[in-house]
């Protein structure tokens, strides 16, 4: 059999199979996947995700993740949409003042 000369792209952290606890952990670490998206795909609520993360991560990693999630508004869709709205308002104000 002839080998293909086409290179394969390797991802450092490939996406695990949806529905597995590994996918939940991967999605919880991902910045652009909200808790609402995780709940849609797996049926796990935010508190379920927190429990899974607490069980599977080292204590220091769990604390780091919680600090990161609490400081970012991206993990919650409503907060994310609100922050996007605030950014748009600031941009519009800057455009008006720059004229």
* Intertermini distance: 66 Å
Strand-residue fraction? under 5%
Q: Specify the number of helices.
A: 5
Inertia-based shape: extended
Poorly predicted spans? none
Largest pleated sheet: none
Structural domains: how many? 1
Compute the average pLDDT: 79
Give a verbal description of the structure.
This protein is an all-alpha fold and 99 residues long. It has one domain (21-98). Helix content is 64%, strand content 0%. The protein contains five helices and no strands. It has helices spanning 21-29, 35-42, 46-56, 59-71, 77-98. Helix 1 crosses helix 3 (46-56). The longest helix is centred in the C-terminal third of the chain and has 22 residues, at 77-98. It is extended.
Task: Offer a quick outline of the entry.
This protein has 99 residues and is mostly helical.
Name a few traits of the molecule.
single chain, 99 residues, 5 helices, 64% helix, 0% strand
Topology:
Layout: H1 21-29, H2 35-42, H3 46-56, H4 59-71, H5 77-98
Helix pairs in contact: 1-3
């Amino acid at each position: 059999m002839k080998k293909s000369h086409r290179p394969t792209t390797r991802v450092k952290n490939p996406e695990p199979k949806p529905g597995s606890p590994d996918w939940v952990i991967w999605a919880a670490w991902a910045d652009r996947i909200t808790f609402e998206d995780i709940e849609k795909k797996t049926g796990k609520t935010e508190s379920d995700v927190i429990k899974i993360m607490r069980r599977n991560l080292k204590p220091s990693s769990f604390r780091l993740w919680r600090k990161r999630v609490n400081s970012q508004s991206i993990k919650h869709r409503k907060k994310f949409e609100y922050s996007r709205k605030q950014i748009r308002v600031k941009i519009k104000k800057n455009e008006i003042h720059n004229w």
